[in-house]
Each structure stands twice: as C-alpha cells, then as structure tokens.
Amino acid sequence: MSRIAVRIEPFSARDAHAVAELQARVFPSPGWRSTAERAAYFCEVLLEAPWADAELPSWVAKDGERVVGFFGVAPRHMRFGDRTLRVAVGCQFMIDPQARPGLVALQLMRRYFSGPQDLSVADGANEASRSLWQAAGGISSSLHALHWVLLLRPVQSLWQRAARGRRALGMLGAPFAALADACVARLQPLGPQEGLREAPLDAVSLLAAQRELIPHVCAMRPEYDEHGLAWLLEQAAAKKRHGELEGRLVLDAKGVVGWYLYYRNRGTSQVVQLGARRARMRDVLGCLARRAREGGALALEGRMEPQLAAELAGSRYLLENRGIAFLLQARDTRLLLPFLRGDAFFSRLEGEWWMRFSGAERPEPAREAPIPLKKRRIVLPAKAGT
Fold first, then answer.
1. What is the mean pLDDT of residues 85-113?
2. Degrees to nearest 5, angle at CA 103 with 102 and 107
3. Which of 181-195, 245-259, 346-360 has the lowest mean pLDDT?
4. If DSSP codes are grouped into helix, strand and coil, which group holds residue 329?
5. Which residues are 344's β-sheet partners?
6. How far apart are CA 326 and CA 146, in angstroms?
7. Separation CA 275–CA 269 (nearest Å)
8. What's the rounded Cα separation, in Å, for the pair 366 and 265?
9. How far out from the chain centre does Cα 317 lie?
10. How far apart are the C-alpha atoms of 151 and 146, rounded to whole Å?
11. Of 368, 256, 308, whose CA–CA distance to 144 is shortest?
12. Average pLDDT, the chain
C-alpha cells in the first residue's frame, strides 16, 4: 500500500462499483450474478431508501482513488417519549485485506461515531468489529446476542442439529425422529388459541398495530410511515434465503392482540418481528407456532429481546450464541438504558438482518416429507467388492 494518507469520504453512487468489488473480495458470495447487480443493491438500500439522510451517509476509505474500506450506514428514526431519535444502523463494515486494516478500520469507526445521530446500532457484528466498537466507547448487549429456538418437532429438530454435516446419519435417523415427534404432537398438541383469530398483515395494518400497541409496551420504539414500512416489507420479502415472508394479525373480540412476521419454510423458520399487548405475547407465540408447524417447519428461531425472555420459558426452547454481537453507542448514555432493561422495541426489521448483501439467494431446500417407518426402504451402501 502506498504512503498516501487514507481519505474518508461519504459514499455516493460513483463509488458503488468499487465498493461492490471490495465486498466481493472480503465477503465472497455466489449470490450475485454480476458486480453491477451487487453495486445496484448498495445504492438501492443505502442511497435510495425512504430514510436516506445526507447528514448520515455511509463512508468509504480511499487510498488515492482506490477504495480500501467501507462502513455502511442505514438511517432510521425511533421515538423515545416525546423525542424523535436519529439512529444510524451500521452494516457491511469491511477493509481491503491489502490495506492497513487497523488504521483504516479505526478511521472509519471514528467518522461513523462523529455523525449527528443520537444512537448508533449494529446488530450483526463479528468479534473483530465488537472489539473495535468497544475500544471506541460503545457497548455490547450480551442478551441481544442470543438466539432462541422453539422446537416445533423437537426430536427431528435435535436430530437434525446432531447430524449436521453427516448426511447419511441424518437420513437413517429421520424416520425414527418423525415417529417420535408424532407421539409428542399427540401428547402436547399446538391447538388453536381459544377466542383468537388471525387476519392477513400488510403495511397498513402493521403500522396501525405498532402505533396502537408498542407505546404501551416499550418506551423506545421505531417510527414509521406507511410508505417507509411498505418499502421495508418489500425488501424483507425479497430475501428468499429463508423462505417466503408471511405475517398475520392476531385478534380477539376486543381488537388486535398482536402480530407476527416470519419466513415460512419446512426447516427452521426465522422470526422477523413479534408484537403483542402486555401479557399476551405467549398467545401470539402460540398462534405463530401453530401456523409454522402446520406449514411443515421443524423449529422457529428469533433473536432474543429482553421483553421476550419471560415468555420463552419452557422445555421446547433452546438458547444459542452464534457469536453475532449487538452493539450500541450514544453520547447520551441514557438512550442505552431502554435496550438494557428491555424497554426498547428493536426487532430484526429495525436492524440490518433483513438486508440481502449476500445476494438474492434461493430458499432453503424443502425437507423430505417423513415416510411412515413401515413403508420406508433404507438402502445401505454395498460393501467393497460386492
């Protein structure tokens, strides 16, 4: 690398191709058909989003005219009491391997933190980013780093995890696991919640439900309008890696009880957002679990949020640490407290999880429908020489 001082500049469309090439070197992914397609997505999400803000840009590091680093910033708005907060969600923090990584990373992080945002958040950071973030004055939320897993078909779910990477073992145990889960389903059925019904969810109904319910549950909450939320749901639906995006309102005789938004598939269905009235989260979770199980899912998975912790107690739940950090920084440290005490509504839809920087991936392959044991023929590999 030359001795020219690294410059930090706001990201613009003219940088998109070089940033896309940098991402291809740092985070190789077969999900993109071309560099142009990858570059177009950077512009779409970071420059053309409804919340794009010239005062909260993404940042590029340049050595001469060469892009050697990038820090993506997705602006958002949140409400805290009567105050509207400017939130800078960090994403796609990457440094050219041939550059001076420590120096470039530190310069990008400092520029990011020096912006006019009230709150900085990163909810998909690796260990290197976490260390740098904390060294620069931010904090890490250990609870938000956890993921919960609800086992809808517990035996098959656990067997699938145990046999991961060992296909033959998984195939041999699958019929026995399916049979065991059939017994579990009879002993512990996921029946319909009494007095509840469900209705389709779209941007209009979701916005109304959020405005009605969240202020009574959390002091800090996202602030959307109909256009912005519709755009966000379209973006999330285009992320085909986890299946088809599906959302439902949950209602009782008095009105909306809550809602859920998740990716429907026949493996582990990822939960994007859950909302409910106080003391009704367990009912909403029950409705989601029943619908996902009817759709063939083995398990549900979501990111842990403090207000969910009490509702996730039960023998079918697992907690997993994926080594993905949830990071926070604010000049006014009082803005961090709602996250740490479970008083902030910040789901996967508010962070960076919905983004598809890894490309327009296809859904996970559907798992094979279990065949009754007496009808299933298992063929073992022939011995050598036979």
1. 92
2. 115
3. 181-195
4. strand
5. 220
6. 9
7. 17
8. 7
9. 19
10. 16
11. 308
12. 84
How much is the pLDDT for 168? Answer: 47
Token digits for 81? 């009491």
pTM for this model (two decimals): 0.83
H/E run at residue 40 = helix 35-46
The residue with tokens 């999330």 is: 236
Tell me how far apart the alpha carbons of residues 260 and 270 are, in angstroms, rounded to a whole number: 11
CA–CA gap between residue 292 and residue 268 (Å, rounded): 9
Q: Are 68 and 21 in contact (CB under 8 A)?
A: no
Question: Are 274 and 281 spatial neighbours (Cβ–Cβ below 8 Å)?
Answer: yes
Q: If residue 61 lies in a helix (H) or strand (E), which one and from where to where?
A: strand 59-63
Of 351, 348, 306, residue with least CA distance to 87 = 351
Question: Which tokens go with 234?
Answer: 């379209």
Q: How many Å apart are CA 119 and CA 336, to the nearest integer?
A: 8
Structure-block tokens of residue 343: 């008083």
Chain position carrying tokens 């011995």: 383
* Residues contacting 103, CB < 8 A, separation 6+: 6
Structure tokens at 108: 């990008």
